[in-house]
What we know:
- The protein is α+β, with helices and mostly antiparallel strands and 196 residues long.
- It has a single domain (2-191), classed as Aminopeptidase, CATH 3.40.630.30.
- Helices cover 35% and strands 31% of the residues.
- The chain starts with a strand and ends in a 5-residue tail after the last strand.
Amino acid sequence: MDVDEGMPSHSMYYLGLLASLGWELTSKQRMEAPYDVWDRLAKAPLPGGCCESSLDASRVEEVVHVLCEAYRRPEWDEQRREEERRSWTKTMDPEVLGTTVAVERQGRIIGVCLRGVSSLGPGIVEMAVLPEEHRRGVGRYLLYRAMESGRTANVQGKPYRLSVDRDNLGAIALYAAMGYRRSQVLTVARWVKDRP
């Protein structure tokens, strides 16, 4: 559930209520890049020693590992990490894998970008890079490739879209460098089953 923080009086009430009922709250910001940003982007090279890889069902565990490691929070206990792993595994079907760009180094997936296209335009559903691979060009390459494929699907000229955790300053800086600007501030509320 998304709570738009553009209406502060409503937001504070609902967020306080949801938190008291056990919902997990995450501060996010939505970002957009205009359709013509592509014309101004320099091609992002594939980082040295890496190759782009295609995915199928045999690589689901590797993709889930990257997503779990990239999004893991220090305060999560083992039970919470296992819930995340199961949740990511459920979302991995052939259609999702078919819209995912992946980068590997020495046969190991180190970064993934799940793309999507909706009536609002092309978007990044999720992007994750293993923490030890940050600041090596993997994220830039993944974003560039996802935007490139979104451009072919985006015949109406709608903006590229994504959302990012507000405390992920490295990702926000990357997205800004690629032409994205903040379009909305929100809090995402997620019910986590069987949590105290």
